[in-house]
Amino acid sequence: MTEAGSVPVSIGDNSFQPGTATVVRGMVVRWTNHGAVRHRVVSSAGLWQSNLLPTSWWFEVRFDSIGVFDYVCLADSTHTETGRVIVQ
Fold first, then answer.
1. Which H or E run includes 3?
2. Are 20 and 83 spatial neighbours (Cβ–Cβ below 8 Å)?
3. 34-49: per-residue pLDDT in tens?
4. Is 1 inside any structural domain?
5. Residue 82 lies in a domain
6. Within a 10 A sphere around the Cβ of 3, how many other Cβ atoms?
7. Cα separations in angstroms, 3 against 6, 27, 58, 67
């Protein structure tokens, strides 16, 4: 469950769901690991980075700027998940 005003993104072992999340400026995106292994959510622009997230752990970022924010999972070299947050 996420807090009111936050947008959930599920981390699987091979993808983020949804792959693209569209939010309004000032909203929070919460990534929750639903995979079997640990994952790390990392901004492609170096704006944020989570710790390694065990199963059921979560990480949040508040988006205060309008734009497109790409991210990846960098837990290890076998993970190739990519995602995007669009802030309007």
1. none
2. yes
3. 999 999 999 999 999 9
4. no
5. yes
6. 9
7. 6, 11, 12, 23
SS3 47: coil
18 within some domain: yes
Q: Which residues pair with 33 in a beta bridge?
A: 11
Residue 75, domain member (yes or no): yes
Largest Cα span, the chain: 34
Measured distance CA(71)–CA(82) in Å, rounded: 6
Residue 72 structural domain: 6-87
Label residue 1 by pLDDT band (50, 70, 90).
very low
Kindly report the pTM of this predicted structure.
0.90
CATH number for the domain harbouring residue 65: 2.60.40.420
How many domains does one find in the chain? 1
* Cβ 29 vs Cβ 7: under 8 Å: yes
